[in-house]
Amino acid sequence: MSKNDRPTDIGINRTGIALSPLDGPRMTEGATATAPSSAGSARDAAVLRFRYAVEAGEIGHMPPPLSLRGVAGAAASLLKGQKGNVLLDKLGERLAFERTGVRLYDGLILKLEASGSWSGGPTLEDLVAFRADEARHFEWMVEAMTALGADATAMTPSADLTAVESVGVLQVISDPRTGLAQALHAQQLAELADVAGWDLLAMLAESLGHGELAAQCRLALAQENLHAASVARWLKAHAETAAHGELARAS
Amino acid sequence: MSLDITKERGTPLERQKFTWKEIAGEPYSKLDDDAFTRVRQILMHGVEQEACRLKHFAARFCPDLRLPLARVRRVEHLQATMVNWLMPGDQSPLETTIGFEQVAIEVTAHVASVEPDPYMAQVYRFGLLEDFDHLYRYAALMDRLCGKDANNILQSYTDVMPGRPTSVEHRAPEDDLRRHYEKTQAAPLTKIHAALITGSEWQTRDYYLTIGPTFADPVARQLYAEIAAIEEQHVTQYEALSDPSETWLEKWLLQEATEVYAYWSCYSQEQNPRIKQIWERFLSYELGHLRLVRELMEEVEKRDPAELLPAEFPDPLSFRSHREFVRQTLTEEVLLRARGFDIVPPDLESPASLAYREQLNASGSPSELVAAGYRWKPGTELTDRRVREAEFVSLVQEEAAQ
Ligand SMILES: [Fe+2]
Ligand SMILES: [Fe+2]
Ligand SMILES: [Fe+2]
Ligand SMILES: [Fe+2]
Ligand SMILES: [Fe+2]
């Protein structure tokens, strides 16, 4: 049996309260009848969070610049000061996200090989091609950072956070119990973030006068738009096929 | 149903083998499996951790036992791993935490209700009401931080409401010690209960210390720090119940008997056939450990281990909801406090504990804060229109107004 038709099968999910006709009402009755040990609301915790937010330091900072020797004169002047760091932080973010994107596609390819696709779903060639796109985007970012005299192996603050943001995507894709459609649903988050990430970076590069870099970002953006649209199309085809009970035949 | 532990020989140690594929086998389903499958998994990991821990301490004091301890401990370690690896990857640390408190409540409630020694039973009821409160605090955190319902994990077996408030559970160390059983007089079940609950509380302490700092939210970080401190007190309380004059071999023997009893209990009630097989296999491993320690005792201490063991176990641990027992205990004993070895009325609390608590809570109580005005509702408190549509008030403006 292909895992692609499993998720919506009726099984014995026990998480809902309706599954406990005797215990469920007792839970509710008990909780309603017992007074909280202190007055207030969720706002009390918000006040503490507010205090911490006001007092907290930062997650981390940009590394000190490498020597600007070897960096072409025009590029070097463009990189000086705060603007340079904003750009490098975002380049670092794209670099990290695209590098992880390659690994996400490794996971998706494995899923497809293990559980097959469906009519209107991805082919192996689709996924292999998208993986190659992510790998190329990563390579471009390494080149861009190096050309600007930055250390492409450093984890910038945005790179760090983007990895924290996508922890769940990796968790879903790497779980052997999820099917390809479930994994692609996770990947959809990554692709939408990819689109937004390249869009922002193209704008930033342009406004800081890095015309060539901006053009490269727009090329990547076009490819990511294709990724996002393809994933959305595959998922819609899956949902439709599943809803009509035709998945077994399709896979 | 009963288990004759003198007749059952179990799997010999040299045949207790594992592969990585088995150890990292398929986990249970968070959605489909019964909550008590998770309860058993968490409990047994705690028991196996205790089996390893005890053997490490024994090895530090007993040079002659080091080799047999190392041999059996290696198996305990791999058992611990295999049992813990039954946890699925889609179960978040906070969801697992809800499971930990459900274990503490339901297993301690069972133990308190069948414990033959009335003093010990009172101590278990005392601790029970504290873990009961932890569940309520964590459920509030899960609701208000993550927008998730703790009952997806509890499956309606365990109530979510305040117990003895966590904020008043902080006590001076001298008020966490308890009287121990006398090894020559105590029932074997009394000794097994102490080993079982001590192991379970210790793993809870360790778990909260490990995962607490993986949260980014400061309220969660404070709450885990606070409840970990109570679990440390619980370990202090429960380990005090065992007779310190027991020899290392006696303690070892009791630990193996505890493992036999616990796996047998799991095996007798498991509904997931694949996991039931694991309980059966490990029951047989533990019978093998028990036999090995019995032989060691005859050889080293020249005594008959049968004096220390029950001929057969009574009823298994009951993995079911103890709602009525817990509610009754709550009604009758929630106000009790501890002073020295005794459980006392609130007006007899020690000045030392009051001072200790006042100091710790001086900058606010995380457990009160997280559950301020909180009532659990099926589907989270956001199902309540008054909560959902509460008027927005800016913290900055409020701050400025003050
Ligand atoms: Fe992409
Ligand atoms: Fe064991
Ligand atoms: Fe607890
Ligand atoms: Fe506890
Ligand atoms: Fe053992």
Describe this protein with a few key phrases.
heterodimer, A: 251 residues, mainly alpha, Ferritin, B: 402 residues, two-stranded antiparallel sheet, 2 strands, 59% helix, binds fe (ii) ion
Topology overview:
The complex is a heterodimer of chains A (251) and B (402).
Chain A: H1 23-33, H2 42-55, H3 73-79, H4 81-115, H5 124-147, H6 157-165, H7 167-173, H8 180-207, H9 211-243, H10 247-250
Chain B: H1 20-23, H2 35-61, H3 66-84, H4 93-114, H5 118-146, H6 151-154, H7 188-211, H8 218-239, H9 248-269, H10 273-300, H11 323-333, E1 337-339, E2 342-344, H12 351-360, H13 366-370, H14 385-388, H15 395-401
Antiparallel strand pairs in B: 1-2
Helix pairs in contact in B: 2-3, 2-4, 2-7, 2-9, 4-5, 4-7, 5-8, 5-11, 7-8, 7-9, 9-10
The complex binds fe (ii) ion (5 copies).
One fe (ii) ion binds at residues 48, 51, 76, 79, 259, 286 of chain B.
